[in-house]
Amino acid sequence: xxxxxxxxxxxxxxxxxxxxxxxxxxxxxxxxxxxxxxxxxxxxxxxxxxxxxxxxxxxxxxxxxxxxxxxxxxxxxxxxxxxxxxxxxxxxxxxxxxxxxxxxxxxxxxxxxxxxxxxxxxxxxxxxxxxxxxxxxxxxxxxxxxxxxxxxxxxxxxxxxxxxxxxxxxxxxx
Length: 174
Description:
single chain
């Protein structure tokens, strides 16, 4: 990473977390990011995009002139997560999880605000299940989930496709 600040420190800030979420699996300009986050003031958005670029979390994939200004397209620098080997402490982990939950709640609020939400039609679902698993069984289950998702991860935006967010949390119940 280009900065000494850890990825955990960068992403426990709500706007930066939402920017990263918006860029999962796609490239967007700052204008498009602003459309995705209409409640974030433009100056705040540009400031946080700059922080993420300097830290190596985002990379510029394209630059083009638009009415005399340079419009940049950004995407996630996926190797940034691999480069950060610092584990967050309990307080930081709690903050990150709270931001994660707030992001989910924000996503859900935006879905509800789209008009007449129809969870069955829209294939909305959320569930919890208690599983009794050994560490080896958890590892095998996660490998199978990755294997099941792999064929779909490369899909791009096309007519008939809706961007869907799959969020998972796996933790021991101790």
